[in-house]
Design a protein that fits this description.
Blueprint lengths: L5 E11 L5 H11 L3 E6 L5 E8 H13 L5 E11 L7 E3 L2
Parallel strand pairs: 2-5
Antiparallel strand pairs: 1-3, 1-4, 2-3
Helix pairs in contact: 1-2
C-alpha cells in the first residue's frame, strides 16, 4: 500500500556478510515484513540492499539486518533514505 510513509533506502552492510546466507536472511525478513527490493553481494565483500515499503517496517527491517543471520557478523550499515515514486513487486536476490 502506497502512502505518505512509503520510503526506500539503500543500505550497504559491512562485516562478515558473504558466504553466510546473509542475502537469503535479508530476503526472508523483507518478505515477512511485506517489503520489496533487492539484495546483492558487492565485489568489496559488502552486501547492498535496496528496500521499499512502509517507513515503520523499513526501520524494523534495519534492526533485523543489524542482528544478521546465524553465521554473519555485521560491523556497520551505511543507509541512505529516499522518498519513492515507483513500486516494486517482490524482494529478490541479484546474482
Amino acid at each position: 500500500m502506497e502512502g505518505a510513509a512509503e520510503k526506500i533506502f539503500r543500505a550497504v552492510v559491512h562485516g562478515r556478510v558473504q558466504g553466510v546466507l546473509y542475502r537469503d536472511f535479508a530476503q526472508r525478513k523483507a518478505r515477512s515484513l511485506g517489503l520489496t527490493g533487492t539484495v546483492q553481494n558487492l565485489t568489496d565483500g559488502t552486501v547492498e540492499i535496496y528496500a521499499q515499503g512502509d517507513e515503520k517496517k523499513l526501520k524494523e527491517f534495519l534492526e533485523k539486518l543489524k542482528k544478521g543471520s546465524l553465521f554473519s557478523k555485521v560491523e556497520s550499515i551505511d543507509v541512505v533514505w529516499q522518498d519513492t515514486t515507483t513500486h516494486k513487486d517482490d524482494f529478490v536476490i541479484l546474482y
